[in-house]
Design brief:
399 residues, Argininosuccinate synthetase, chain A, domain 2, Single alpha-helices involved in coiled-coils or other helix-helix interfaces, 41% helix, EC 6.3.4.5, Arginosuc_syn_C, ATP-binding
């Protein structure tokens, strides 16, 4: 079943993507498989993964460190947009997919491949994100998804791999399926598939249980410039270091856990657990700073944009024309969103207790109820008369 001669495969080192290598060659007649592993700050030692790909039959095994690009070009735009899917999930896993698609297409061009491939099944969101993003970047390249078509159970997949020298896992140490990168972790499957079951403490790695967090609160100041986080406690930090430090601060205080039943793009509901300490805090802080620096009509209109933006990321539409147009709107809205937000971390809570900005539209002399009040109270009566006129006319006509 010859579909392509040379294929670049998105590679994680797991069972499915490892078995994809011999499967593509044996079943689909692919002559050469090049693997590409993306370093997204997940903390794995990628040299063994690189070697495993070669041992599994790859002709070339690539590793690309794209952690900084992941933060600056994908996470930061999402923060500026306050992007939360279904008002809860900060898209930590979904944001990685368009970047992986981008480097897949680039590698295919570099190595003269006529197809790219991934190990996604036919049930999840990632297949959509990969396929649509790849098509947006190169509509002419073939996309192969062996795991979506081979119809093998996990046991059958492992057995197939063993036939071609791919060692089976020594043991299935965990029933959970976990994806992680610098921004966070997503955990699903196993006992979590019963939506009534409380998540066991063992699944968490970035956040402490409330009982184990410090008794004293931690105060942290986050600095923003034009909507982008740039500093912690007055110290300017590079993007990756800023996320790393804030993950540690928030996670140490038990902040960053999400337990939700979400609506997948393919039409089913899925119980998901996420850890996203820094992203949740940064979106929370950024939105608060906007309340200080943005006019009310702009802030209110942007809320609707944010919901659409989050759905587009989740649904794999990062490279769509609408997303590009929304980016232009959001970037324009962020010109004055610079300042500092003070966050109090304590026992699983991240509470904003202060904010300041040179562009603040908050005027204490107008807001105060003290003798320093400069608001013209007499103007209120005329304003109320004009403002309420439609209601009064309606009431008179409908007595």
């Amino acid at each position: 079943m010859g579909r392509a001669k040379k294929v670049v495969l998105a590679y994680s080192g797991g069972v499915d993507t490892s078995v994809c290598i011999p499967y593509l060659k044996q079943e689909w007649g692919v002559e050469e498989v090049i693997t590409l592993a993306a370093d997204l700050g997940q903390g794995d030692e990628l040299d063994p993964i690189k070697q495993k790909a070669l041992d599994s039959g790859a002709s070339v095994s690539l590793v690309r460190d794209v952690t900084k690009e992941f933060v600056t070009d994908y996470a930061f735009p999402a923060i500026k947009a306050n992007a939360l899917y279904e008002s809860r999930y900060p898209l930590t896993t979904a944001l990685a997919r368009p970047l992986i698609a981008k480097i897949l297409v680039e590698a295919a061009e570099e190595y003269g491949a006529d197809a790219v491939a991934h190990g996604c099944t036919g049930k999840g969101n990632d297949q959509v994100r990969f396929d649509v993003s790849i098509a947006a970047l190169n509509p002419d390249i073939k996309v192969l998804a062996p795991a979506r078509e081979w119809g093998m159970s996990r046991e059958e997949t492992i057995a197939y791999g063993e036939r071609f020298g791919i060692a089976s896992p020594v043991k299935k140490s965990s029933p959970f399926s976990i994806d992680r990168n610098l921004l966070g972790r997503s955990i699903e499957a196993g006992p979590l598939e019963n939506a009534w079951n409380e998540p066991p403490e063992e699944i968490y790695a970035m956040t402490k249980a409330i009982a184990d967090t410090p008794d004293e609160p931690t105060y942290t100041e986050i600095g923003f410039e034009k909507g982008i986080p740039v500093a912690i406690d007055g110290k300017a930090l590079e993007p990756v270091e800023l996320i790393t430090q804030l993950n540690a601060i928030a996670g140490n205080n038990g902040v960053g856990r999400i337990d939700m039943v979400e609506n997948r793009l393919v039409g089913i509901k899925s119980r998901e657990i996420y850890e996203a300490p820094a992203m949740l805090v940064l979106i929370h802080a950024h939105r608060d700073l906007e309340s200080l620096a943005l006019p009310s009509d702009l802030a209110q209109y942007k809320r609707g944009i944010e919901d659409t933006y989050g759905k587009m990321i989740y649904n794999g539409l990062w490279y769509s024309p609408l997303k590009s147009a929304l980016d232009a709107f959001i970037d324009s809205s962020q010109e004055r969103v610079s300042g500092i937000v003070r966050v109090k971390f304590h026992k699983g809570n991240a509470i904003i207790v202060g904010r300041q900005s040179v562009n603040s539209l908050y005027d204490e002399d107008l807001a105060t109820y003290t003798s320093a009040d400069q608001f013209d109270h007499k103007a209120a009566e005329g304003f109320i008369y004009v403002w309420g006129m439609p209601i009064r006319v309606w009431a008179q006509k409908n007595k």
